[in-house]
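Newbie here. three chains, one complex. Structure please?
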Amino acid sequence: MYAEKRQLVAPGELLAEGPFFAGENTYREGTKVFSSRVGMADVIENKIIVVPIKGAYIPRMEDIVVGRVTDIGMSGWQVDICAPYPAMLPQSETPMERGRDMGRRDLGRTYGVGDLMIAEVIAFDRTRDPLLTTKGRGLGKVTAGKVARIAPAKIPRIIGKKGSMITMLKKETGVDIIPGQNGVILAVGRNPDQETIAVEALYMIEHEAHTSGLTDRVKALIMDRMKGKSVG
Amino acid sequence: MLGNLEETRLLDENGLRVDGRRLDELRPIKLEVGILDKADGSAYIEQGKNKILAAVYGPREAHPKHIALADRAVVRCRYHMAPFSTEERKSPAPSRRELELSKVVREALEPSIMSEYFPRATIDIFIEVLQADAGTRCAGITAASLALADAGIPMRELVAACAAGKVEGKVVLDLSDVEDKKGEADLPVAFMPKSNVIGLLQMDGSLSEEEFKQALDMSVDACKRIYEMQREALRQKYHVVREEGEGKEETAEVRA
Amino acid sequence: MSATHQSSPVAKLEQKTVVDLISKGKRLDERGPLDYRPMTITLGIIDKANGSAQVYLGKTKVVAGVKIEPGTPFEDTPDEGVLTVNSEFVPIASPTFEAGPPDENSIELARVVDRGIRESKAIDLKKLCIEPSKKVFMVFVDVYILDHDGNLIDAAGMAALGALVDAKMRAFEVKNGELVYKKQTVPLPLLNHPIPITSAKIDSSIVLDPCLEEEQVMACRLTVTTDKDDRICAMQKGGLGVLTPNEVKQIVATAIGKSRDLRAKILSRVN
């Protein structure tokens, strides 16, 4: 192993040589493993990975995403999930009345162009665009709240070690925070001021993701903003 | 000689060039990563008086759909010079030269991109020359490679580029504008040091086989030095403060 | 914008055939790796042009025409004639060529052929001055691709050279600042004969003069244009593949020798 844990590496940088698995964002050439992206090198058992600093959102099965409807088709909706591929939500994957053959106008009443939804990715591979479902707890149309859009690579930082960051955010702002793996985060609270504070905190985390003592500083920001606002 | 050609010498008695450089010396290079907000990745380079911005958008949805490839991303590249970038104003419409350079620059960068990861998508590279001082395609490639890395696009390695040439009978590195205009040869090269391969190679002028080999070795060597500068620029942008306590488990949190 | 081209229309199996053959030192048409296809060059086929040449290189067919007309010089070379090289990839030549403005391949070809002629100083541009800063002769070299079966650059470069060698113009003098043509025709004054030699990298082998099927499987190509003194005047790498510095040096060495052979062939056509 040549790269140290949490060392910043660039594409083409030699990470290790020998009996290692080339994990995410690395590639193997002969006996050597190289990084393919800018990020931090890490080793989990004998698998080498690089945690990327930045990158487009590539959908994965079971990802929860926040998407925006861009078109209504014959049997479903086209949804922008901020990925290089437009996603599809078929009518059959929504908890609607079965057996009814809905026309475009009816589909439009359920989700119109511009509506937001929380959905789960149920299929995606190299040959077709991602498929979504809204059948499931917590999934469906978004009717209230504020949206923050951050780099997908920073979502783990929003969640934090064992959920510590997101738990703190929810507690301090009194707002429910739903992070989409695609970098779109929903902040839904009873009070629009609280939602705004939550969004500000989210962008702060994105901006300073690589610094230390972040959880405390974000908490301090929230508490400062909450002063003078009616809480409850 | 007729006309307004001055009899300026390009090499002085000590073999130094007009700007005081030795034959194999690079112009001062400044690199900055991630300077644009909207682009997915960006980088800025100054080399001599060159001022060039590179931006990357992608991978993103292919528009129009019919240009998409089934098995990998389409890489698109535009090399463009601002009208105020040259001594005489350049028309904003793409010239034949810009069209040719867009092609050869793409062919230098595309081999480094793992485009098979994004079938049916596009990766768009834009190089804008704000001020030109010879060697713009090479400086543009150096910046664009950083912009691709900054965008988080998977790559085999970075691409560095530099031109060599010939001035008053001597092979020299990194021609400046006056050396390009009055010199005897210009040889731009783009190189990937880890794989030891060349992605861009052009030449115009007059070189013997021996002079060519010298010039090629000189630019390949310079590319290796520029590669180190690229890595340093990435480090400057993304230096990570080691966090006590936080960190190790945080990595495990990430979907591996 | 330059964009990745559509995938090769050749099936993977057919590609493999070409690659396998080449790794054994053979090619589809039984040529050796360094052999050019049979080439014929015919000069003077277009009467209305000052000079013209037709090149058949295997099944690739290219015609080049030279027109010489008075015009204005560039500011920084007021006493020199002006060279312009243009190329057209007309739709008759290939199912892949579309009508319209030149695409990047056509522009690249024209500029590479131009570089060879310009940098080798093939045309004695100083002899084309009529009145400094006011009037000079413009030499238009137009390359027309008629049939695309690979290696258009070399075929075009040779056709352009042939057309220049064939080119004649009316002798002239300047009387009282006016251009006056004399009765005789004289050849376009030439000083050099540049020839482009294109090599293709297929897998780990290098072959010269790739035919269309070889171009469709090649990693990349490197064109090296040399002049009558074995000096390199232009180079252009094309394609998405890459070359090691040693491969480049090897290709250059081979091209210099090949260029000598082809130059002799072309010039022997001129009596």
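Moderator note: Chain A has three domains: 8-52, 64-142, 146-226. The longest strand of chain A covers residues 116-125. Thread marked as resolved.
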